[in-house]
Design brief:
Elements: H1 2-7, H2 28-60, H3 81-105
Helix pairs in contact: 2-3
Length: about 110
Amino acid sequence: MVRMLRLTDAFIWEDLITTDPVTGSLTMAAWIPRIQIFTTLITTTVIAFDVVQTTIRFTISDDSPFLYGTWYPFNATNSPTYELTNISQVRTSVIKWVYSFMLYIL
């Protein structure tokens, strides 16, 4: 396994040709950086929309909303259950966002 990973050190996408010499069309080596930029842009847009939408919903709403519209088999509207449930939902969202960004950074 280690030997196989060491073989990948010599492989770099930037060293490959980006256009086909015969047809002049883009090769997969040219598409990969473009796809990475596009997916990073989409992920950032979705996360920003989610943060803005959630902030507006929490600010405008008269009742005590949850971060996600969920059903619980217990009464989650009483204190401290409401606060603990919201903390767990926020923690899950942060983990989801960090994981999403780590996919594109690493």
